[in-house]
Write a structure and sequence with these properties.
The complex is a heterodimer of chains A (112) and B (294).
Chain A: E1 2-7, E2 25-30, E3 36-40, H1 50-60, E4 65-68, H2 73-81, E5 85-88, H3 96-104
Helix pairs in contact in A: 1-2
Chain B: E1 7-12, H1 20-31, E2 37-41, H2 50-53, E3 56-70, H3 80-84, E4 90-93, E5 96-99, H4 109-113, E6 119-133, E7 139-145, H5 153-162, E8 170-174, H6 181-187, E9 192-197, H7 201-217, E10 221-228, H8 234-241, E11 246-251, H9 254-261, H10 266-269, H11 272-293
Parallel strand pairs in B: 1-8, 1-9, 2-7, 2-8, 9-10, 10-11
Antiparallel strand pairs in B: 3-6, 4-5, 6-7
Helix pairs in contact in B: 1-11, 5-6
Classes of the chains: A alpha/beta (112), B alpha/beta (294).
Chain lengths: 112, 294
Amino acid sequence: MILIISSQNADINSPVDPRFGRSQFFIKYDTNTNHWEAIKNSSVNQRGGAGIAAAQIAVNHKAEVVISGDFGPNAFNALKAAGITMMTFLQDTSTVQDTIDHYKQGKLNPFE
Amino acid sequence: MKNSKALCIAVASGKGGTGKTTVATSLALSLTPQENVLFLDCDVEAPNGHLFLRPRIEAEKKAVILIPRIDVEKCLTCGKCVEVCQFHALAEIGKSIMIFPQLCHGCGSCAWHCPSKAIKEIKNPIGVLEAGLALKGIRFAHGILTISEPMATPIIRQLKKWQKTETGSVIIQDAPPGASCSVVETLRGADFALLVSEPTPFGLHDLKQVLDILKEMNIPGGVIINRDGIGDFQVDQFLKQNHIPIMMRIPYSTEIASAVAAGKTLLDVSSNYGLEFKTLFSQIKKRVMENETC
C-alpha cells in the first residue's frame, strides 16, 4: 500500500503539514517495504490550482491513500475520481512517522 | 492616447474604500458636456459606479471565457494538456482528463498542444457587460462577474474592448481595490493613473504597492488624498520624498460622507469641485503629453 503524507520537511520525522495543496513536501511511504521517499511540492507557491497539482502528484506516484489535515474541493474531486482514499491526521499527530503508525494501527478515519 | 486616440485615465487606490468611485464619478461629471466621456466601471466583483451616474442600461453582452472540452474518442490521455496548463485546470486521472473550469484562464494552450486535436474550446459564461447613457450624457459601461466565478480579468478585458471611442474622447476607468491581476488589467493601456489614498498606515501600505505596479508598467500617476485631516503625515512624507505629486486633497467631512451615502458626488456637495476636477484634468493632460514626448 502506497501512502502519501503532507509534510513540512523532506524527512519522515518531520512535522506533518496540515495543508494538502500548499504542503512543502510529500512523504511517499510503502507499507510493504517500509521504504520512504520525499517529494517536493513544486506547486506550493502557485496562485491557484495547488490542490489539483498535489492530487496529480499523488496520482502519478500511484498512491492508494493520501493523509493530510484537510482537502479542498478541487483536490477532493480529483482524488475521489482517481479512487484514492483520503484520510486526516489525528489531533495528537506531530510527525509523519506518527501518522504512519496511526494508519497501521487502523486509527485513521476516511475523509468524505 | 498613443494608440487608441482617446485619453484613458484609470482611478485606482490599493486600499478599498478610499474614494475611487467618488473621484471617478465626480471627474466624469465635471468633464461633461465639454468632453466626450466614456466611464468604465472595472470593479466587476462589486460595481457601484452606476449608483452615482445612473445609466439607463440599453445594451447587454455575455462575458465568456473559452474552456476546453475533450472528445474522449480522440483523446490519447497523453497528458500533454495537463503538462502545459499553467493554472492546473486539468488533471490526468487514470484513463481520463478532468477539467476544472473555474481555474481555467481561457489561454487555449491545451487545445493548441493536443496532438490528436481532441480538445475543442467552448464558451463558458462568467458574467455580463452592460452599457447605456448616464447622467449628463456620459457613456457608461460596467461588467458584472457572476457570483462564485473567480476570474475577474477576462471580463475586464472584454469590457475595455466593448465600447468604441472616438478620437479626442476621455475614458475613465474605475479600478477594483487591491493590487492584484484585476487592477493590473484595468491599468493596462491607461495613459494616466489617478491614485486615491487616505492618510493612514493602511492607505500608505497599499498605495506603495500600486505605485510599484505603475513603475513596472511605465504609467505616469498622481495622488489624491481623500479624508484629509485624519490619520498621520506618513503618506505626505512618502510622496514628498519620492517626488510624486499630490494633485488634490479632499477633506474628511461628514457632509461628503452623507452625500456619497445618498448616491451623490462631490459636485453635489460644492460647485467648487467642478472647477477643481477640470483643473486636475488639465494637469493630467499636460503630464500625459510630457510623458509621450520624452
